[in-house]
Structure formats: C-alpha cells, structure tokens
Amino acid sequence: MIEPPAIAAIRRFFVIVGEGAPPNTAELARALDELVVAVHDAPEGDPADEEVAAPAHDYWGEHARQTARFPELGYYAVVWPFSPEEVLTGDAHDDLADIIADLSEVIWRYEIVSADDAYWHLHFQFLHHWGVHLRELSLYLHFLLRDSD
To answer: What is the count of structural domains for the chain?
Structure first.
C-alpha cells in the first residue's frame, strides 16, 4: 500500500531523527524542509466527530535521545517577532522532541482514527505548535550551515 505523501514524509523524518547513523546538518535541514512541503501539500482534513485522546508521548526520553543523537546542536537565540526587544532561548533538542511528539500523534491518528483526522491535526499542530519549533530550528540549522563554509 502506497502511503499519502505527507504520511510518507513524516515516516522519513522519523528515520532521519531515529535510525542508523545520525544525519549531517544539511540532511536534517532538508528533512525539515520536506515536512513543510508535506504540510502545505496535505489535504486540510476534518477532526473526528468524537475527540480521541492520543497516547502520551515520553517527552524527556525523546529529548535525551535527540541530545545523544545530535550532540553538536544546542541552544540558540530567538527574537519574538511582535516585540523584537524580547530575546528568548531556543533549544534544538527540545524542538526535535516537540516535533516528534506532535508528528507521532499525527501518525497514530492516521493509523487508528482516520486520515481526515490526521490531516486536520497535522495542520492545526503545525500552525499552533510544532511549526514554530520547525521554523526556528530550521533557521538555526541554516546559520550553522552558512557559518561552516
């Protein structure tokens, strides 16, 4: 069975962040870009009529796995766009753990609830949570790549 492109992109991302030899910075950046394209190309979907709670995700376990897998990544500065004087600290490992948690729920919903529900959650969570982590992490990786030349 051929999976829809968005679901296949999520599964490829899970391989990049969790299996085999760790990718280099450029490969991780590309995997994030592919997720963005997948979201933009995915159908909007509709939430299930009945709210179904996804299984809990082990955030701290995932954070530890990503820290071990990508020890070269770390903290970076983030400026809040609506108040540029407010500088925050981003954490690449937190970003990855949050992206993985939200996308794990999307895959769970695809497999257990419905594709429509999964797509709706993919878009909603991208707009309200993991998309911010992805965009900030992507910019951090961009500067790492630029400064490595």
So the answer is: 1
Specify if 54 maps to a domain. no
Task: Judge whether 59 lies within some domain.
Answer: no
In a domain, 53, yes or no: no
How many whole angstroms from its chain centre is CA 38? 12
For residue 91, give the H/E element and its range: strand 87-91
Model pTM? 0.94
Handedness of CA 79, 81, 86, 91 (dihedral sign): negative
Task: Domain of residue 141: give its range.
Answer: 5-44+71-147
Distance CA 20, CA 69 (A): 10
Host H or E run for residue 114 = none
Q: Is 51 within the bounds of a domain?
A: no
The predicted pLDDT at position 50 comes to: 86
CA 57 vs. chain centroid, Å, equals 14
- Between CA 76 and CA 100 the distance in angstroms is 20
